Amino acid sequence: MGGQEILLQELDGDGVLRVTLNDVARRNALSESMLGQLTRVMQAASSDRAVRVVVLAANGPAFCAGHDLKELTAARAAPDRGREYFARIMSSCSALMQAILSCPKPVIAEVSGVATAAGCQLVASCDLAIADEGASFSTPGVHIGLFCSTPMVALSRNVASKHAMEMLLTGDMVPAARAAEMGLVNRVVPKGALRDATMEMARKIAGKSSMTLATGKRAFYEQRDMAIGEAYEYASKVMVDNMLARDAEEGINAFIDKRAPHWQDS
Predict the structure, then answer these.
(1) Which residue, 63, 77, 186, 191, could crosslink 115 as a Cys pair with Cβ 3.0–4.6 Å?
(2) For 240-259, what is each residue's pLDDT tens digit?
């Protein structure tokens, strides 16, 4: 790599942390190194009070091409034909996706180019996603005899079952407009407008109480797979605790007084 950083970070004055995949030569593949670095960045962002929103972006023609197949193939030379290495990489990838979900800060994918296999999984694992009109998505493992089982976990929790199965069974490339129709991305913008559109959304969210955002994100994912009665019971308790928070009291008073709120993030 000639000393090139494969992951770039930039924190602006609004608390938006831009994390940019920069392994252009490998199409920003989720190599062992990339998985480790991304996970550490997400863990650090989770506890950094200066970070209010995380944007995942990428340099080059690919957002993320999934796992590094050359690394995986090289591991087959081991006596166990790569079993231990494959298990470690899949565990590392799962840990990254869960680090995104458990991060109390909203995470937005800024997608230009292709997002395939675990790259599509990365997009689906983010809380929000904005793509430019040239972006495309696929889970193409079936083309090479490898069903995209781990990308399936994130994909099936973001789009309807039949849409997910179509992507998984055919491996077809899905253009950005169709991905928006399916719910894989929030919106599609013209090429050249992607960064501005993403940062506009990120800064809008960053202006809210970080306590409120963390409460809401955690509650959203917790209640999603509960039975309806259990979900309402859980969400009601969350609302009560939220109502007693200082930022909720301040926000309600500011609304009544017709003034801007002053968040304490607590």
Answers:
(1) 63
(2) 999 999 999 999 999 999 99
Our count of domains for the chain comes to: 2
| DSSP state at residue 146 | -
Structural domain boundaries enclosing 227: 210-257
Average pLDDT score over residue span 110-119? 98
Residue 4 pLDDT class (50, 70, 90 cuts): confident
CATH of the domain at 73: 3.90.226.10
Q: How far from 39 is each of 33, 42, 55, 128, 161, CA to CA, in Å?
A: 10, 5, 14, 18, 28
Calculate ∠ Cα 126-127-128, nearest 5°. Answer: 95
Taking the complete model, does pTM exceed 0.90, yes or no? yes
Question: Do the Cβ atoms of 129 and 189 come closer than 8 Å?
Answer: no
